[in-house]
Amino acid sequence: MSRVYLDWNATAPLRPEARAAMIAAMDCLGNPSSVHAEGRAAKSIVEKARGQVAEAVGASGADIVFTSSATEAAALVLAGQNYFSSDLEHNCVSVWTGDTPQPLKSVAQQLANNETGEIYDVEPATGFCDAVQAFGKIPYAFAWSGVERAIISSHKFGGPKGVGALIFKQGIEVEAAIKGGGQEMGRRSGTENVIGIAGMGAAAQAAAKELADGVWQIVEQNRNVFEERLLNEVPELIIFSKDGPRLPNTSYFAVKGWKAETQVMQMDLAGFAVSAGSACSSGKVKASRVLKAMGYDEITAGSAIRVSIGPSTSAAELDSFADAWLKEYKRFKARQEGK
Ligand code: PLP
Hints:
Shape: globular
Structural class: alpha/beta
Bound molecules: pyridoxal-5'-phosphate
CATH class of the largest domain: Alpha Beta
Largest sheet: 6 strands, mixed
CATH architecture of the largest domain: 3-Layer(aba) Sandwich
Order of helices and strands: EHHEHEHEEHEEHHEEHEEEEHHEH
Helix content: 25-40%
CATH superfamily of the largest domain: Type I PLP-dependent aspartate aminotransferase-like (Major domain)
Distance between the termini: 30 Å
């Protein structure tokens, strides 16, 4: 049986437009900082991508700095600064922030949570917005958000892994963390990842078009049908953040006491890629920090798995996942009841 990939919030499949742009950029010889024709050709690839990203994220009147990841873009803004955030933030934000609001501190807030998919109201006064999971899945425009700094990550919307961007209002100070050759207007030194940036630009453009075409509404319908089926068959199922604004592609659920780690492994063996709430780089599964911050107990937070889908996920694939998961659920219940 072929594998079914249901882990789009971890990383999305590469878009054909991004692949084509990267293949074309591979033949570009020059260094974007060189003044000769070869250098100018490389520079024009980077600048084309900057324009594509700017248009896709609605960033008129803003500047964009390409980085190696959203994690790096977050560090560029937050390291050494007095930001505070809630415990719901991604680690790449929360490592730099305090959790007690104090006067004169700026707020860092995500637009959508990577685990639950919950969408938050991000006030214009917020200093920093993590738009990584939201961009491409729900309408987003940096300019009308009013926020002064935001980050996005290429691989979450069908670009290559290892490229991200900081978007910031013109006139905002961004102090370089990586200093050297002065690339990216002096905000991020190091020769640009021309191939990756080309892929990110093409992916951003394609993602914006897809969203405008209404493709994610179908994703949402498929997700909702899937959840209805699970809820019908498993009344004890908890679906997190189900009743508020939520990303159209994310379903995060738990059967209390059925360990997330076990479920992820069982599903992997059955041919499905899903993830637990939080996986650290060692691959170990821990109880979800986000769910604990939302007030759930340790056992529930350790029992949650996330199914995250995209436009190429079919209803049949979700159905076959539900079949496999329900089969394992029945075995779990039988074990629990000592049968
Ligand atoms: N912010 C959120 C909400 C994320 O989900 C992720 C990736 O998982 C990141 C930031 C970090 O992105 P990157 O992989 O580009 O470092």
